[in-house]
Request: fold
Amino acid sequence: MAKNKITTSKIIINLMFIIYALFCIVPLILVLSISVTDEMVIFQNGYSLIPAKFSLAAYKYVLSGSSTLLNAYIVTIIVTVVGTFCHLFISSMLAYSLSRKEVKYANVISFLVFFALLFNGGIVPQYILLTKYLHMKNTILVLIFPYLVSSVNIIIMKNFFKSTVPDSIVEAARIDGSGEFSTYLKIVLPISKPVLATIGLFVAVFYWNDWFTCSLYIEDNSLYVLQFLLQSIMNNIQYLQSNDMLQKSAASLPSESARMVTCILAIGPIILTYPFLQKYFVKGLTLGAVKE
Reply:
């Protein structure tokens, strides 16, 4: 087998990706730098990659209600973990069923899934359904339930199962006496880690960043998610600074640096989670891209 040779084209491609990676990393470094910079220095000198005057005032302000913030973290983690797991489980079951030729009316159901991708009832019918008929308002379930199924993810999983799961394996499992659910659980899911990890990451990021659902259905402070709480903190700062009677007391508030602190607190867990899913994520995006 010939050894991989270092060529000019490989060097150029690697340099291009290194430069692109730097362009992606520099904004994160800038956000971190601003979050630990004194507010007055930011107004005087603007943003800089290296803090001109180090200060943790913004972190102290944002974390001043640490118990509320910790509770929001816990609620967000529960919603993200449970929501992602249930989404993958429900969507993959439906996608696997639609990928099997022997399932009756699979084409009709696939059309309905695709139709739901193009059209939906809108926010008002959804609000009426969740609050009046399902009575989910001010419950943690309302943060999870609306996004348990995604037409796009079902279509992606269905195509993955069709192209990756051999019929011979399923038939062999049936001959050995395995039921459909047992085959799905013990055979199909283990060989579908790439697509599950890829979609799982997208769904987890969506649940983690979702603040709109909380703003619609949650009035109980103990059920606030992290993103909605951080947005409320920033809105409070802006309100104080815009109020003529409170401008003197609000002048010392770290508005710009606090905004960056909220970004750090919001993206931190996702950045820490991504390396563990990276190998599956890359494989899930490239698997099936090239066919012989």
Summary: Residues 288-292 have pLDDT under 50 and may be disordered. The two ends are 21 Å apart (CA to CA). The domain at 57-166+193-286 is CATH 1.10.3720.10 (MetI-like fold).
